[in-house]
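@channel sequence for tomorrow's demo:
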Amino acid sequence: MNRRRLRAAALAGAAACGLTGCAGGTGDGDGDGLAVAVTSAPLEYVAERVGGDRVTVTNLTPRGGDSHGLEPTPEAVVALAGADVVVHLSGGMQPGVDEVLAQQPPRHLVDAVDLADLPPDPHFWLDPVRLAELGGRVADELADADPGNAGEYARSAARLDEELAALDAEYAAALAPCRGATLVAAHEAFGYLADRYGLRQVGVTGLDPRVEPSPARLRDAAEEVRDTEARTVFFEAAAGPAVARTLAADLGTATDVLHPIERVEDGETYPGLMRSNLAALARGLACDG
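structure tokens (generated this afternoon):
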């Protein structure tokens, strides 16, 4: 089925839910609790931590799938239409989802678009302080949908805030000697992280890791590496190391892995991946400490 037919079928499913109702949460904390639909792994992490066992979370991006350019299937759109709460990041990362939500507005929507204020970079979740703010918003929307459990949602959001504050403190302490260092990333996804911890990101492939860099961009990146004496080129494992390793071999630098937490496999978690990223940064950046 081509994209146009797929989206038409999806919207038809959403319209049917609007007329007849679809399976979802109760909206009052009874039964199976609230149905929450999310559109990426970091949003899933927040919704599950804040909602706890009072919610059932459906992530439209399957495990191991790429959240960039997600095209919702008819089944996914039925999940969106039947959800009590939708947690999404609009603004173009997933235009197919944006279109579905515009056609069939959800009962309760948490849109993180204003947390992603380094356009066109959507990866705000790589800054744990910003992700903690999303947790508070999710708690507020869950409370609107399920007032009887408002206190539980608020307490869960507060616990998540403490956990993410601890993660932020770990990053700040480990990267304090690295302030001003150049972070050379094959996938230019780490602008929020760099901004939070005083680093300077230089991207090789841009925001979409599937796009091959032009010779001119490779030359510019190589010049940046030489000028700043960066000692590591970081790449995303899911996108492959070819570009990073080619650049590193030409310049005599090392390579290492950073995870943008978009394509998450079974067993991988947001805190675990963030701490793996921190370990890679601490060993790979040119720091004073």
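heads up for whoever presents: Strands lie at 34-38, 55-59, 85-88, 109-111, 182-185, 200-203, 232-235, 254-257.
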